[in-house]
């Protein structure tokens, strides 16, 4: 298998960015295939910290970085993120960066609608990142999206905007909002068009060439399987498919290109936004996990909810996403806990479940069944080899892989790029 597909196996923020950055130096191309700038990845390289939302994490190592058709793209955010990274010395040019010309755009009207709906939902809100992701995907599926290639046909854009605005104006009226300022939107699109178009191309062709040359492709997933619009904790999910299968449809390569599926798994569990979370800890232990793990969102700065490792959820994610092996991250956050707990099953109205049910009410009601393990007194922080790990930490890793029925390929022990233990090379598998 020459290619690797990285996906999050929980509710996002598992440390995908760090692992993609680490793997990127061994890849020839890195491709984002779904989501948008709702993602937030923190990469730490020496004394530099990079925060990425839309650009593939491979850009930091200068690896060819591609935004696939499955992504929803906010052109103004793109410009700002490129400027920010260039300010940190990262080189981004038409040689090392490309955008699929059939990528749908996120427009200010999508952000408006996202905010209007969330405000109207009150306590029932999803807790979105407010970046217009859901409304943009709706317009894509509704066949009225403006796409990157449309920016090269400005004469036809007027009529396209008529259709799109007719839809949005009706929705906005329902919220007591004025219609879209169509003229201003058209002017903004005309202004940003040349910037976006310099990177635009049919990336499937570029990828076909890369593949034919025998090069290694790294597919970079955003969010996590439990936020998948089909398989996640619906309706508290994002609006794309986050599973590994999307790597093919979201990039323009067939399913046989996916290669080794590397599920990124945090050694405990976190979630941002609303929705069920069986092992959530609303006590001092949860607080401690959040503090030790610096669990604040990269995109919104929101505090992430924290809880023990849920083996039922991860086993399900690995099965649904065909995970070949996992990267277990943030093991160091568990350093110093006297006892660590793992959820091995659920109790639901007197019944024992070995899976996470589909209905939101059942998901909210399941009670975790825990297995307790002795913690470790030594430290895993900064470990770069298996031999550096305390015996009890190794036992924890072994128990995790047994319960999730999937082997561990990598272990991450700090935010720093090089603090990574390679157990099984996904590119050589
Ligand atoms: P992503 O969205 O999956 O890329 O993850 P985020 O970057 O949003 O969140 C993961 C956070 O944990 C980031 O701040 C990383 O720098 C940090 N991180 C990644 N791996 C490790 C690790 O092994 N240990 C610790 N302590 N932090 C890590
Ligand atoms: P990365 O790639 C964690 C969550 C939001 C919300 C739900 C829907 O950094 O792991 P959206 O704006 O997508 O419509 O919000 O999904 N969410 C994430 N949570 N990590 C992410 O990305 C997320 N992207 C979206 O908090 O609950
Ligand atoms: Mg994140």
From TrEMBL:
Reactions mediated catalytically: IMP + L-aspartate + GTP = N(6)-(1,2-dicarboxyethyl)-AMP + GDP + phosphate + 2 H(+)
Cofactor note: Binds 1 Mg(2+) ion per subunit.
Enzyme type, top EC level: ligase
Listed cofactors: Mg(2+)
MF (Gene Ontology): adenylosuccinate synthase activity; GTP binding; magnesium ion binding
SUPFAM superfamilies, per the entry: P-loop containing nucleoside triphosphate hydrolases
Record family assignment: Belongs to the adenylosuccinate synthetase family.
Subunit text: Homodimer.
Active-site residues, Swiss-Prot/TrEMBL: 13 (proton acceptor), 41 (proton donor), 140
Keywords, alphabetical: Cytoplasm, GTP-binding, Ligase, Magnesium, Metal-binding, Nucleotide-binding, Purine biosynthesis
Gene name in the database record: purA
Binding site residues for Mg(2+): 13, 40
The name this protein goes by in its record: Adenylosuccinate synthetase
UniProt-annotated binding residues for IMP: 13-16, 38-41, 129, 143, 223, 238, 302
Pathway entry: Purine metabolism; AMP biosynthesis via de novo pathway; AMP from IMP: step 1/2
Database matches in SMART domains: Adenylsucc_synt
GO cellular component: cytoplasm
Pfam families reported in the protein's UniProt record: Adenylsucc_synt
Taxonomic path: Bacteria, Pseudomonadati, Pseudomonadota, Alphaproteobacteria, Sphingomonadales
Record's function text: Plays an important role in the de novo pathway of purine nucleotide biosynthesis. Catalyzes the first committed step in the biosynthesis of AMP from IMP.
Sequence positions that bind GTP: 12-18, 40-42, 304, 330-332, 412-414
EC numbers, comma separated: 6.3.4.4
Main location (coarse class): cytoplasm
Cell compartment(s), UniProt: Cytoplasm
């Amino acid at each position: 298998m020459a290619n690797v597909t990285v996906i999050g196996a929980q509710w996002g923020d598992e440390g995908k960015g760090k692992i993609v950055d680490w793997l990127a130096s061994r890849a020839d191309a890195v491709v984002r295939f779904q989501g948008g700038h709702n993602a937030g990845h923190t990469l730490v390289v020496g004394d530099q910290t990079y925060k990425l939302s839309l650009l593939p994490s491979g850009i930091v190592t200068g690896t060819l970085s591609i935004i696939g058709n499955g992504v929803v793209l906010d052109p103004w955010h793109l410009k700002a993120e490129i400027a920010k990274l260039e300010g940190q010395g990262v080189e981004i040019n038409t040689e090392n960066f490309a955008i699929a010309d059939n990528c749908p755009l996120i427009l200010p009207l999508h952000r408006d609608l996202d905010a209007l709906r969330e405000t109207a939902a009150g306590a029932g809100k999803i807790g979105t990142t407010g970046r217009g992701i859901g409304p943009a995907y709706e317009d894509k599926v509704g066949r009225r999206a403006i796409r990157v290639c449309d920016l090269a046909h400005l004469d036809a854009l007027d009529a396209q905007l008529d259709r799109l605005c007719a839809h949005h104006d009706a929705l906005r009226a329902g919220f007591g909002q004025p219609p879209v300022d169509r003229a201003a939107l058209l002017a903004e699109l005309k202004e940003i068009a040349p910037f976006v178009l310099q990177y635009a191309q049919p990336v499937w062709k570029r990828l076909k060439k890369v593949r034919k040359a025998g090069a290694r492709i790294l597919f970079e997933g955003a969010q996590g399987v439990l936020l998948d619009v089909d398989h996640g904790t619906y309706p508290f999910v994002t609006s794309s498919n986050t599973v590994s299968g999307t790597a093919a449809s979201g990039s323009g390569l067939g399913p046989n290109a996916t290669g080794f599926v590397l599920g990124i798994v945090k050694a405990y569990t976190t979630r941002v936004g609303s929705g069920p979370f069986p092992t959530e800890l609303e006590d001092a232990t949860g607080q401690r996990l959040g503090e030790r793990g610096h669990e604040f969102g990269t995109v919104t700065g929101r505090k992430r909810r924290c809880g023990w490792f849920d083996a039922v959820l991860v086993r399900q994610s690995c099965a649904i996403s065909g995970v070949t092996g996992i990267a277990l991250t943030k093991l160091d956050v568990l350093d110093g806990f006297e006892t660590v707990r793992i959820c091995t099953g659920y109790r639901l109205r007197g019944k024992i479940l070995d899976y996470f049910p589909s209905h939101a009410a059942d998901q909210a009601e399941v009670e975790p069944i825990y297995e307790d393990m002795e913690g470790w007194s030594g430290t895993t922080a900064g470990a770069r080899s298996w031999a550096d790990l305390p015996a009890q930490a190794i036992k924890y890793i072994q128990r995790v892989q047994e319960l999730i029925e999937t082997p561990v390929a990598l272990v991450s022990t700090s935010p720093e790029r090089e603090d990574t233990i390679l157990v099984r090379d996904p590119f050589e598998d």
